[in-house]
Amino acid sequence: MAIPKKLAFSTKKEINQLFKQASKKPCSLFLLVFKKKLTGKPQIAVLVGKKISQKATVRNRLKRKFSQALLEIEKNFVFKPVDLVFLPNQQAISKTKQELKKELEKVLKKEGFINVKTNNS
Question: Which H, E and C letters describe the chain, residue by residue?
């Protein structure tokens, strides 16, 4: 399951520009690259390089875990206008989806990138 199109970056060029202008926050399971915006929709990407694992199945499984965790977070929270790129590290491979979700939620709340959904959101 991939990140929904409404939250995904539309081109690779946008992601490359983000890396030039963004701030970085290292976490225990991933590196978060972000840039706050004043208006617009949030954009999210999960990038897993070959340094994490040479096997595509491992990289794809990790992307799926992150995507599913982000989808579950989106059900309960509203993302603020921000561009987010997640770069998982080696420790993330052995974690479950629930552990990833817990860590993602903690970091996103701490940085102020999500708000609790209300009935009219």
Answer: CCCCCCCECCCHHHHHHHHHHCEEEECCCEEEEEEECCCCCCEEEECCCCCCCCCHHHHHHHHHHHHHHHHHHHHHEEECCEEEEEEECHHHHCCCHHHHHHHHHHHHHHHCCEEECCCCC
Mean pLDDT for each consecutive 10-residue tract of the chain (121 residues)? Answer: 82 91 93 91 93 95 94 90 94 94 94 82 49
Q: Is residue 67 part of a domain?
A: yes
Residue 89: count other Cβ atoms within 10 Å of its Cβ. 16
Q: Domain with 28 in it: what CATH number?
A: 3.30.230.10
pTM for this structure?
0.90
